[in-house]
Amino acid sequence: MSKVIVLGAGMVGSAMAIDMTKKHHVTLTDISRDVLSNAKQKCVDLSTLELDVTDKKIMQSTIKEQDLVINAVPGFLGFETLKSIIEAGMNVVDIAFFPENSLELDALAKEHNVTAIVDCGVAPGMDNVILGYFNESMKLTDFECLVGGLPKTKKWPFCYKAPFSPIDVIEEYIRPARYVEHGELVVREPLSDCEYVEFDKVGTLESFNSDGLRSIIYTMPHIPNMKEKTLRYPGHVEYVKVLKESGFFGTEKVEVDGKKVSPIDFTSKILFNEWKLGDMEEEITVFRVTLKGENVSGEKEEVVFSMHDEYCTETETSSMARTTGYTATAAANLFLEGLFKEKGVFPPELLGKSKACFDYFLNYLEERNIYYVKSSRTI
User: What are the residues facing 359 on neighbouring strands?
Assistant: First the structure.
């Protein structure tokens, strides 16, 4: 049994820690005693520890006692926390989804003889794994990922709930969206190019531009067309655009009754209750990746991977926590089992290149009733 420490006990962090206890000794850490207590009630095998990751010295001395770190802190803390983990010489699986480019830490990871597997969620995450695998056997021309987490019960006006902090959701709505079209990097406004898409079991959803390509812009520069779009129930985008255009996502502080506050902090506070996913509230995750290119037979082929997952009543675990967290724990376990040993920073597409790693991800998730269904046709 290995010793694993998970930094961040939110909905996803707790789910990962509980999953890892099946094979390992796990310590779950957070700055909040209450969230640690909630996780402990779900799994008596968990060890818990109050920890402030911004206290670099204490954090580094704490993780030194472990065999692997899983970084699940909020995005705004993610990059510096990952950097500190690497500087401590610790191997790490990261799902903080911070805005900075993780590949900038590659040289540092190699210098400290560290394996850092990053962006290991559903998307980014499994879409990268799928892309990395088929890039080995096809001459790809197109990659598209559509993904979203949605509540089963639609509550007006936003018809949306989040298993993580509203500020991280808002980041999706304000960060410029990068695409690759005809071999050129294109930057578009987030929430743009809204279009309706049909999905089995769900019906009509709307997709919009978001900055989800991340590392594959750099690792897959030979693919001429690549895009990622987020999914929501119809109408959501219009309401978010109203907030955005009215200045509610602004960062410059304004004075209200003698006190200064930034609009985005105020908005996050308001939306926290509106978007907060209840502990046992049912929600779904919808995912579709489409790849186009030339296969080994010289035929033009389209390959589609679809996934539909729902809240698990048996384990009382949200779908987004399952699909995101168990991808990361799959990466953690395949690393601990010695399937991947390279040193440096590795987004999931670089693991997916290996058939053994690709199969491991799919099998691990199937064991947890998360199914990525493949279909293909010549075009």
Answer: none
CB 190 within 8 A of CB 213: no
265's enclosing H/E stretch is helix 263-275
- Rounded distance between C-alpha atoms, residue 54 and residue 56, angstroms: 5
Partners of 142 in the β-ladder = 225, 292
* Cα Rg of the chain (Å, integer): 20
CA angle 9, 87, 83 (to 5 degrees): 55
Helix/strand/coil for 183: coil
Classify domain 3-122+320-369 at the CATH topology level.
Rossmann fold (3.40.50)
The pair phi, psi for residue 293, each rounded to 5°, is 170, -165
Q: Kindly tell me if the per-residue pLDDT of 287 is higher than 90.
A: yes
pTM beyond 0.90, yes or no: yes
Q: How far apart are CA 306 and CA 302, in angstroms?
A: 13
Q: In degrees rounded to 5, what are phi and psi of residue 247?
A: 95, 5
| Tokens of residue 23, six digits | 């094979």
Give the residue among 181, 203, 191 at the shortest CA–CA distance from 230: 191
Q: Is the pLDDT of residue 198 over 80?
A: yes
Q: What is the pLDDT of residues 88-99, one digit of tens each?
A: 999 999 999 888
Residue 109 has a pLDDT of: 98
CB-count exposure of residue 253 (10 Å: 0-12, 13-18, 19+)? middle
In the chain, the amino acid numbered 116 is A
The domain locations on the chain are 3-122+320-369, 126-319
- CA 207/CA 228 separation, integer angstroms: 9
Q: What span, in angstroms and rounded, lies between the C-alpha atoms of 40 and 319?
A: 20
Domain 126-319: which CATH class? alpha beta
Neighbours of 89 (CB within 10 A): 14
